[in-house]
Design goal:
The protein is an alpha/beta fold. The chain has 8 helices and 16 strands.
Length: 243
């Protein structure tokens, strides 16, 4: 299996594919024709949302030059056929949205077990990238989550990587949830208490994994022990692990 875990593969929301840091070239080289794609939604019970995200992603890739033999949406409507859909696909896209909602759906359809035998290419987008981790850091993002003592900030993911990604840095760096700054007052304290390292990706940055080897392409930061630091600039590559 090869995987590309992105903040976003697009230049803007629902926009053209971002070529930054060689993303499209590297993804194209990893894919094998004929491409049979399975798009996994974050909101399985919202058909309109799922259809929109799936269709936009397909159009963006086709505009960039990819050709699909098959392109299927996995949501609640197609959930009974998950095992068959995974088995017949060689490209799985995990869409963006609400991390816990997608995470619950992934377990509902047994994707953590099914993906163990998958030998194609996985593309994570935002929440989809976050849910690829062995232990997912589900940073509070919706009102009420940051102050809810019962909100689970750590979830079991797909287990593709140990890297815990926080996407959309420049879009989100000034955001607050329940009056708390999402980096200074949520992620940084969580990194100190849990001893986790969070990888902060701007759009255009991605992690590429192949046969146990992982490389981050582009600008990124890490948050650990309560401190955030910049590690690489746009255009750079950094192999993992690093100090």
């Amino acid at each position: 299996m090869k995987y590309f875990l992105t903040s976003s593969p697009s230049v803007s929301m629902d926009g053209a594919i971002n070529p930054a840091n060689g993303f499209f070239d590297n993804l194209s080289a990893a894919l094998t024709a004929p491409i049979r794609c399975l798009f996994v939604t974050t909101h399985p019970d919202d058909a309109a949302f799922s259809d929109h995200c799936s269709n936009c992603m397909r159009q963006a890739f086709e505009d960039a030059g990819l050709e699909f033999e098959e392109y299927v949406l996995l949501d609640r409507r197609t959930a009974p056929y998950t095992a068959e859909l995974v088995a017949t696909s060689n490209f799985i896209i995990l869409g963006g949205g609400h991390v816990p909602t997608q995470n619950a759906f992934l377990h509902d359809v047994h994707l953590p077990q099914l993906i163990r035998n998958f030998s194609g290419v996985v593309l994570g987008i935002s929440a989809g990238s976050m849910n690829c981790a062995r232990i997912v850091y589900a940073q509070p993002e919706e009102p009420g989550e940051a102050v809810d003592k019962n909100y689970a900030r750590y979830l079991r993911g797909l287990g593709l990587t140990d890297v815990q990604i926080l996407p959309h840095y420049y879009l989100c760096k000034d955001q607050q949830v329940d009056g708390l700054k999402i980096y200074d007052e949520i992620a940084m304290p969580d990194s100190k208490s849990s001893l986790h390292r969070f990888y902060v990706f701007p759009d255009g940055t991605y992690l590429y994994g192949d046969n146990g080897n992982e490389t981050i392409y582009g600008e990124f930061f890490v948050i650990e022990n309560g401190v955030m630091r910049k590690v690489a600039n746009d255009g750079q590559q950094m192999g993992l692990p690093f100090v």
